[in-house]
Amino acid sequence: MSRAEILGNIRRGLNRSEADTERQQAVQNRLACKPSNLIPQRAQLPAAEQVELFKTMASEAVSELIELDRFDQVPSACADWLSSQGIRELVSASNSELRELDWSPLAQQQIEKTERVAQAGDLASLTLSFAGIAETGTLMLHSGEQSPTTLNFLPDNHLVVLYRSAIVGVYEEAWKTLREKFGDTMPRTVNMITGPSRSADIEQKLQMGAHGPKKLVILLIND
Amino acid sequence: MQINTPFFKQRAHDALADANLQKALGNLKAGFPEKRAIAVSRMPEFEQLRDQGRDLKNHILEHLDLYLEEFERKVIENGGHVHWARTADDANRIILDICQQVDAKTVTKGKSMVTEEIGLNDFLEANGVQPVETDLGEYILQLRHDHPSHIIAPAIHLNLEDVSEAFHANHHRPKSSDPAVLMQEAREVLREKFVAADVGITGANFCVAETGSTIIVTNEGNGDLTQTLPKTHVVVTSIEKVVPTLEDMTLFLRLLARSATGQEFSVYNTLSSGPRREGDQDGPENFHVVLVDNGRSEMVGSEFQDMLRCIRCSACMNHCPVYGAVGGHSYGWVYPGPMGSVLTPQMIGIEKGGMLPNASTFCGKCESVCPVRIPLPKLMRHWREDEFEKHLQPKAARYGLAGWAFLAKRPALYKPYTRMASWMMKAWAGKNGRIRTLPLAGGWTDWRDMPAPQGKTFMQAWKEQQKAGGQQ
Amino acid sequence: MPNISSGPRVGLFVTCLADMFRPSVAFSTVKLLEQAGCKAEVPERQTCCGQPAFNSGDRKTTADIARQTIDAFDGYEYVVGPSGSCIGMLHYYPEVFAPSDSYYQRALELKNRSFEITSFLFDVIGMDSLQEQLRQLQFNHKVTYHDSCSGLRQLGIKQQPRQLLQQVQGVELEEMEEAETCCGFGGTFCVKYPEISNRMVSNKSEFISNTGAHTVLGGDLGCLLNMAGKLKREGKQVEARHIVEVLAGMTDTPAIGEADYGLAQQL
């Protein structure tokens, strides 16, 4: 009932019929061609400068950056950072890439690592970012069998691995990569994350750490 | 929600006399306009983005029925459900029905103005389902049995002390006046609610037809916990939020945060495309989208169609000197500020909402910052035309206007009349140069002096001068 | 002196408030036009621009007044007035008529030749022709400038008055906080919502006096009457004038709302 009334109202307002091929063509064209709108100059840069822009913008959004030469340095970097915060646990995404690393540095510092979805009370999580967007220093993560979404939001601290080679200039490039990977069907959720959680709801004064992670740490791998 | 819009004047009077409210409103300028100005200055293409935002929204509205059908098709393909709600009542019943199907006791809620518009919380509560607001500002308001006074900063009318008292009364913890402590307190209390909730309700900033995704834009992360942890996620949104593609959504995301909070990008921009996929370890098992109309489809093709471009950034109210003076509650319903002054009469009727489009100096600041260039003053003027045609304006105003119009259309009468009026005011002022009280002009002279006319009207003086010149 | 007869014929749109409250503003405008080499005339059949009707939703009266104004200013090369708000209203005339109406084209054409005075001087006449005269003037005061809404946001008037003003000897321009924020006048708004209007003009009064300026200048008498009225009521010592009075060197009249000592002597 409602559906027909609403669509009928719209068509009456537009003075158009349902079988208006001209409009249908316009809609199908836009959905098929996905034309880009204006893309700011800011992020249309050579790759190396994109990485620098990403770092600048991520820092501005209060993300912490730890640069690593190699992927296999991730466990020791996690161990050091967690120790510096006095944290003795890490919940990790179940990525095969992450799993295959040598995690003995954690054990050496008495840090326990588990693979599961997040639970209330978790202190730290580790996930892998699909892309980094230089324009605003934004991470793009998506849900999947090996990457539960709760890890991005529930723990107090969120550590994210990002390959330098996964940094793109603008959001549009990330959509393209995402479509290449998933085709027509999006993963259940795509999270664009730009810094740790915050709120200015009390007297318009910014406080960090509202409901999501209080700290966002980007482990940038210079691959 | 109760409609108090007809009492705008009284509410504005009270608001102006409320020292605490005035103190809280003082936070607005540094909170929003100054930050927006910086963000805009860092994006040299911002004006072009605004043009494109306007044009793209116009394209969408010209094809709204078709994009909605595409969006629906894709949501279903993703395994979700789409519900169409013609009215607020329809929407409430649909949402309650979903809650009852999963035997829900509590629902967590992300920030959503559409659910304010339909009065969802009261409806759920009356039917045995407990809603819990999780946005910090909304949570504070729920504890106080209060309503948002701003569309993105709902508790902007409150001060730290108000929050401190509300938390102390509800959380049974030592009273604190440290915002960081208060936020941690809310974080801890709400964590239990997030985990226990049966249903999570969020709004949507945009609905993407290409992918069947809805997106929420937040800074706190509450919306993500709301939609990820419960078994059922219900998105309550309205029909004008649909956009064609991810690229098109991106254009609006570039405009939204900068216009709203002056951020480069909000912390969490989250796309939801249906329920949990096979193999996913978390995420909701059920995904529903409720598309609310509630008067919007009637705006298509009307003189108010431009209003459907609105992306709810709040820039118009953040920059509005009237909003800044009286705050959002004065407007008496859900949507305050210039956008509210256009939308409210549409939703509650011009008979009740007529005060709002009149409460504007037409200074045009709102239009100058609107990311999709909605001609807000023009739309408010359209409401005044509607009122005029229906004879809804106060008698004194109508007769005053008619008398003035009679003269203004007759130059031969207008001139002696203005000569007389100038002379009388000058005489009334005496040699003071200003008038402290003037009969029938209390609206002016209660608050400021009326500078006196110089004496003769220009038309009179000019004529005399020309004549004298001619004689020379 | 420039040759008056060879310059463009300009119709002066007097505006109601200049007509009734401050003829010196209209005389100053005439003087500036003549100094710029124009032949200034004052069409007899003009009254008001119609803004009160337009903003009250009375489209019929608006259209009647628009027709009257279009007729009155027929044949002038330019239409110039000392108000961004009233000239802005002339720019709205095309919206008042259906494109099929014979007045629609004439309204468009009127819009294209209507200018607020500082915009006319700066954008049409050009600084080169005005500089010499302006530099002979003296106004040895600190001033601040209020940007009136319609002029600023509808007609894009921001730099023009400031550029002109800076040619005058002795003028020290100190910008106030929120120069671009509405003063709360808003035509009938100030009497329909007096308390809100009062809050807005109170803020404005504070920003003005914070600059320590001797005079606040502006381009619209509505705003100036409002601001001057508030400054006087609050007992502040800041004077208010229309910018054309300074640009035309006609500052010998009392400022807006100031006691008229000349009149006292006459009596």
UniProtKB/TrEMBL annotation, chain A:
<dbReference type="InterPro" id="IPR037171">
    <property type="entry name" value="NagB/RpiA_transferase-like"/>
</dbReference>
<dbReference type="InterPro" id="IPR003741">
    <property type="entry name" value="LUD_dom"/>
</dbReference>
<dbReference type="Pfam" id="PF02589">
    <property type="entry name" value="LUD_dom"/>
</dbReference>
<protein>
    <submittedName>
        <fullName>L-lactate dehydrogenase complex protein LldG</fullName>
    </submittedName>
</protein>
<feature type="domain" description="LUD">
    <location>
        <begin position="101"/>
        <end position="221"/>
    </location>
</feature>
<dbReference type="InterPro" id="IPR024185">
    <property type="entry name" value="FTHF_cligase-like_sf"/>
</dbReference>
From TrEMBL, chain B:
<keyword id="KW-0479">Metal-binding</keyword>
<dbReference type="InterPro" id="IPR024569">
    <property type="entry name" value="LutB_C"/>
</dbReference>
<protein>
    <submittedName>
        <fullName>L-lactate dehydrogenase complex protein LldF</fullName>
    </submittedName>
</protein>
<keyword id="KW-0249">Electron transport</keyword>
<keyword id="KW-0813">Transport</keyword>
<dbReference type="InterPro" id="IPR017896">
    <property type="entry name" value="4Fe4S_Fe-S-bd"/>
</dbReference>
<dbReference type="InterPro" id="IPR004452">
    <property type="entry name" value="LutB/LldF"/>
</dbReference>
<dbReference type="InterPro" id="IPR024185">
    <property type="entry name" value="FTHF_cligase-like_sf"/>
</dbReference>
<dbReference type="GO" id="GO:0051539">
    <property type="term" value="F:4 iron, 4 sulfur cluster binding"/>
</dbReference>
<dbReference type="InterPro" id="IPR037171">
    <property type="entry name" value="NagB/RpiA_transferase-like"/>
</dbReference>
<dbReference type="InterPro" id="IPR009051">
    <property type="entry name" value="Helical_ferredxn"/>
</dbReference>
<dbReference type="Pfam" id="PF02589">
    <property type="entry name" value="LUD_dom"/>
</dbReference>
<dbReference type="Pfam" id="PF13183">
    <property type="entry name" value="Fer4_8"/>
</dbReference>
<keyword id="KW-0411">Iron-sulfur</keyword>
<keyword id="KW-0408">Iron</keyword>
UniProtKB/TrEMBL annotation, chain C:
<dbReference type="GO" id="GO:0016491">
    <property type="term" value="F:oxidoreductase activity"/>
</dbReference>
<dbReference type="Pfam" id="PF02754">
    <property type="entry name" value="CCG"/>
</dbReference>
<dbReference type="GO" id="GO:0005829">
    <property type="term" value="C:cytosol"/>
</dbReference>
<dbReference type="InterPro" id="IPR004017">
    <property type="entry name" value="Cys_rich_dom"/>
</dbReference>
<protein>
    <submittedName>
        <fullName>L-lactate dehydrogenase complex protein LldE</fullName>
    </submittedName>
</protein>
<feature type="domain" description="Cysteine-rich">
    <location>
        <begin position="143"/>
        <end position="227"/>
    </location>
</feature>
<feature type="domain" description="Cysteine-rich">
    <location>
        <begin position="10"/>
        <end position="90"/>
    </location>
</feature>
